[in-house]
Amino acid sequence: MDNQNKNCNGYEAMFTFLNEEDFNHHLEVCEECAKEHARMQKVSDLIQEAKPYIKEKKKQARILVTAAAFFVAVFATLSVPLCMVGVDVYDNLVAQNTYDVQELGLPVDEYGFLYIE
Ligand SMILES: [Zn+2]
Q1: Is residue 114 part of a domain?
Q2: What is the pTM of this model?
């Protein structure tokens, strides 16, 4: 078989066990692995493109969480006589954040809570 001549154990094995130089050489002689490598490059390019976008989303989510924590801390300090008001505001804040999480396009379940696999 052709693959025997090329000493090919499959793309993953070659990628894992060969050093960069040998791997690149193997890509030149092995059509199967070259194809697979091109496919992997494409996926990796897509991830690179998506990265700043994902980072931006994460940053927004973190700002929201920080803001929520800040408000909760402020209400916690002021809340002895304003206890009931504080709870109302806190509930509104949580509802608002739930909405924002959906707006950010993060995975949410049918109740609008952040869904983590
Ligand atoms: Zn190969």
Answers
A1: no
A2: 0.42
